[in-house]
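Narrative summary of target 7.
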Amino acid sequence: MHNEFDLDPSLIYVNHAAVAPWPQRTVRAVQQFAEENGRVGSRHYQQWLAKEQQLKQALAELIHAESADEIALLKNTSEGLSIIARGIDWQPHDNIVISNQEFPSNFIVWDALRAQGVELRIADISGHQPEREMIELMDANTRLLSVSAVQYASGLKMDLAQLGLACLANNTLFCVDAIQQLGALQFDVQAIQADFVVADGHKWMLGPEGLALFYCKQSTMPQLALQQHGWHMVQDLSDFSTMHDWQPAHSARRFECGSPNSLSIHALHASLSLLLEIGMAQIEQQLLQHVQQLHSLFTEIPGVQILSPHQHARQSGIFSFNKQYTDPEALYQFLLDKGVVCALRGGGIRFSPHFYNRREQLELLAHWVRAF
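Modeled conformation, tokenized:
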């Protein structure tokens, strides 16, 4: 399956936590879709709609949702979080619990609710029991807890099942930003008892920007007032003559207000087909082996401080570090000049390999960092 990737051989691509390259089957899917449009336009539109449903089925399989009816396709993670933030009927004294390591998307959307009198409580999760720190901030007025499954800078993997149980016991809605886990590590939305899961497809899922998974548990849907309306979100979207009697779709399609992003749907479907063929258990195993190899290699480099978790249960696909007496920006530029595609995050360098990266590439990364 590694021949699915035709990257420039001068590059070492370890930036999947930012924007991932596409597998060759995804490149072909986009080319074929473009060529079809150039030849016959939307003549096969019914096939496009079928592909949309196939993608929802694949996403439901990826996260172990009960049904594809709980899956909507949105533009990005921020849109999904905004639908939640603006859809909940907030009451006086309501509060939201988040962590202090969140990407801006999972902070700004909740911080903006302060204007409505909603209290935002931010847990410091830098200690040994990050979940406990979040749970201790909850009380009877905690309406929602929102957390990233994996923290974008350090790669800290959260114990979502523990948080889900606490939310269930407290009658608190549970929202998971899973963008740094889906496609990298196994994920079971029913096991963690989440109400909402949001994730763009352009990182570990190896898809394009502009298309995101939005999961809403069927029993939770009535708690979200609709903030966007259009022809695509009604129950009978094919009958344009009865729009005066429209009703929201019974499924998560109620959150999709307008025309689908058909090009990106074809692309993400192709990318997910690769992940599901290989199997997420195998992908997770290979990816964690890469990260553990990086830990082993970089522990031996003088002056290197590893910023990512050392405990295996806390590790993800993200490996972050800095080097004593070294300017992170200068080291980043040095690596970039060597053809290393990585990122500056959280005060250090962030590597995020995927399953297809090779051991010798990781050894070369360590060699260059040691030499800098």
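The chain has a mean pLDDT of 95.
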